[in-house]
Write the structure tokens for this entry.
Amino acid sequence: MTKPVWPDDFDLKDVPDIEGRVTTFITMQMAVLKTFDKKRQEWVKDNLPPFYRMTYFFHDHAYRVAEDIRKTALHMGLSSLAAENLYRAMLPHDIGKSLLPLHIWDTIEKPENAIKMLRRSHTELGVGIIAEVLGNISHPFIDLMADIMMNHHEQMDGNGFLHKKGADISAPARLACIVESFDGYSISRHHFGDRDISVEGVLKRMREEKGAAIYDMDLFEAFADMKISEYKENRKEERGTIKMQAFKKLIAIAAPLPMANIDTDMIIPKQFLRSIKRTGFGINLFNDMRYDGQGEENPDFVLNKKPYRAAEILIAGDNFGCGSSREHAPWALLDFGIRCILATSYADIFYNNCFKNGILPVQLLQEEIDILMDRAQQFPSEPLCIDLEKQEVTAGNNIFAFEIEPFRKQCLLEGLDDIGLTLAKEKMIAAYEEKNRRNKSWLWS
Ligand SMILES: [Fe+2]
Ligand SMILES: [Fe+2]
């Protein structure tokens, strides 16, 4: 294989008039792609059932893959100039799509081969746009952009659209193929079934299903390494920076859900557990009860009715939160807006997870729950008051006291989750060390 050639020997900034034209070209073409996405969205709304509605915008995809190629280049130790050139050249790689018909992109079933080939022709069409608009300029950047555009779907074994093979595909195009493919593997589409779209899952599938037949494996490993370290970094940040909300007194609408044994799979079905972010799960809270098979809201479900849609309190039966121990269950409740649950009993792990996320699970007696359930049904707009400080639930003239461990109560009142607790401890340790340092300076010299 020939040595990869990377675009770090030219700087567009050296030729301002060409840079100006290139920048204008990319900006305009990206705007065209965005408009095309909007038209697709309209088309999908008019032609496909809600469950199949498109979430995959080409415009957003372009920014994601351009960013991926930039980061991989830097991760591999290429110059920042090469990384920037690759980023810019990757951005417009799919603009040819806007010249193809609207209806070929979003299909309910897997597309047939003829449609697939038509879709693939966006590579040549895009290069045609470049030729038309920038054809009279000669600059290595234009060649790079056209190369990535033309070849980002080629495969190392020659089974791609143009049947180019191995070293016939340039290093930038081989890397473009990898970032392109990763993004495609990460989409959730109905006809793809319940596939694993976590970073690790996608990389594993790319390696096992296609591997060296499609990808330059050296570049693939460099990309995979970048993605995994990025993922770990995000996870650290994600976990470190989310601030738990304190819980003191809540006056809010309560939704009655008179069922026992509501398990974590009912709260958030397993097919939605794809993220380790705490946010974004609210839309799928109680998914199977809340939506019908077409993805439309079930009008009979309590959280789809006014005023319960705005509920921040949930009243339920025995053994709430049983089943598998996923922390996604409190995340989904919280993301929907539920801050407090009233039930006669809870599953242990769920109960603990609630406190970690700033949700107050209140345990009441059956007759108390019965009264509250009744009131919430008869007077839907009457808010309940949950006073953690006083440990009381008030509904009209009824006041019910509840028990809570003092330590958990304190954590909720102060908004301290595990991370917050560690940080608070760290402050104490630092203060102690500081004092120690002053008193016993010989220990620290
Ligand atoms: Fe693409
Ligand atoms: Fe493409």
In short: The pocket of fe (ii) ion (ligand 1) is lined by residues 61, 65, 93-94, 180 (CB under 6 Å). The chain has two domains: 12-240, 249-414. Residues 12-240 form a domain with the Hypothetical protein af1432 fold (CATH 1.10.3210.10). The mean pLDDT is 87.
